[in-house]
Amino acid sequence: MDSFAIFRSPQTVIYGRNAFGKIGTESALRGKKALIVSDKIMDQLGYVSECQTYLEKENVDSVIYLGVNSEPTDQHVLDSLEILRKEKCDLVISLGGGSCIDTAKAIATLATNNGYIGDYRGGQIIAENPSLPHIAIPTTAGTGSEATDATIITNTSNDVKMMIKQPVFMPEVAIVDPLLTVSSPQHITAATGVDALSHAVEAYLSKRSHPMTDALALSAMKLIVNNIDTAYDNGNDIDAREAMCLGALQAGMAFTNSSVCLVHGMSRPIGALFHVPHGYSNAMLLPGVLEFSKDSCIDRLADLGRIFEPDLSLSNEAAADIAVSSVKNLCLKLGIPNLKGWGIKVEDFESVVQKMASDALDSGSPQNNPRVPTQQELEDLYHTCYDYQFAGTVVLGKRE
Q1: In degrees to the nearest 10, what's the CA dihedral of 65, 70, 75, 76?
Q2: Reduced to 3 DSSP states, what percent helix, strand and coil does the chain have, rounded to the nearest 5?
Q3: Residue 245 and residue 250: Cα distance in Å, rounded?
Q4: CATH number of 186-386
Q5: pLDDT tens across 197-241, in order?
Q6: 152-161, 284-293, 374-383: lowest mean pLDDT where?
Q7: Whole-angstrom Cα distance, residue 95 to residue 282?
Q8: Which residues pair with 163 in a beta bridge?
Q9: Largest CA distance in the chain
Q10: Comparing C-alpha atoms, which of 352, 196, 209 is closest to residue 279?
Q11: Overall average pLDDT of the 264-268 stretch
């Protein structure tokens, strides 16, 4: 490294089976009334009422906001912030996927700093005050948002997903309980799992990676690659679920400190314009982006290839081929669709390709990629990914 590196993480991380039960005591240390940001599915599964029961035992009052659906928007932030202020909440709890956690990050920050959430994008405004305490509880093994200092909020006026990153957005506490992920259906397990893999891979390939992020990213890749098949095939396998949760957590810690790359830059416009959930859009782009980037990061991709096929003695070039082909085959096995398979009409796609490429470059994430695309290369890559074929043959490998 030519210069120093910075590493940020939540003040407290509680992970493992039955960690959810600590929400009451952790909340009581930080506030008297919580706004629980969740969604209707979490409510129907009983997780929201369970959370409230834990809080009640520690004399912490709570109100709920269940308006988050799919991807968080600035309207979700406004609506939930109004509830927080009206109810005089002094604590925010997010319970759900990355959308719930990202919404809560924005609420907790605006509660003490005011303004429009989009004003904090790109450092236009630097939050001067600490956010309200925020306890993040993920219910999927995917986004790693419980351990990142960034939030992604869609601007509903122009359909742009705003990636907003400042230290103030880091949750104070992350509670990661694999038992909460058992309810995830198979397709969600697949999409969030490949999403988590994309976080680990991009953290490792990023030009801004450093030794601490490398250690976490490599560990995350091993955990995810070695357990995602089992978690997908048997959602009740708690060992696999626990490994996936730890992998997603480590990947989140890694990428928030080294930054994501081209996959995420391309993913956000797809989510904003076609309302594809973030996990899916990352998953459907990962193989094509790795293929595009391979020649610029052979040695690092080789490390991923050797995680998929650890028993083979290969050159770095062959191991990098293993990495790309194995990710392709993984997506095929897990039923990840391409953009066309998602149902995006070709005429609708063609009409916004130029905007998507421009928005992706404007986000800054592609600049961290080993191979930085031009506007035209990015448009071409979107076309490639539109009907990308995930089937691949692993060179000298075992997967078919």
Answers
A1: 20
A2: 60, 10, 30
A3: 9
A4: 1.20.1090.10
A5: 999 999 999 999 999 999 999 999 999 999 999 999 999 999 999
A6: 152-161
A7: 22
A8: 152
A9: 63
A10: 196
A11: 94
Spell out the domain ranges in the chain.
Answer: 12-181, 186-386
Query: Is the separation of the CB atoms in 153 and 117 below 8 Å?
Result: yes
> How does pLDDT run across 16-45, given as a tens digit for each residue?
999 999 999 999 999 999 999 999 999 999
In this prediction, residue 311 carries a pLDDT of 79
pTM of the model: 0.93
User: Tokens 């992604």 sit at which residue?
Assistant: 152
In CATH, the number for domain 12-181 is 3.40.50.1970
The length of the chain is 400
d(CA 107, CA 134): 9
Distance CA 22, CA 300 (A): 38
Closest by CA to 133, choosing from 60, 183, 192, 185, is 60
Look up residue 23 and give its two tokens.
């929400």
Which structure tokens are listed for 225? 């690659």
The CA angle 376-143-46, to the nearest 5 degrees, is: 140
Residue 159 has pLDDT above 70, yes or no: yes
| Segments of the chain assigned E as strands | 12-15, 33-37, 61-65, 91-96, 134-138, 150-155, 160-165, 173-176
Residue 109 has pLDDT above 60, yes or no: yes
Residue 20 Ramachandran class (φ > 0 left, ψ -120 to 50 alpha, else beta): alpha
pLDDT grade, residue 394 (50/70/90)? very low
Burial of 310 (0-12, 13-18, 19+ CB in 10 A): exposed
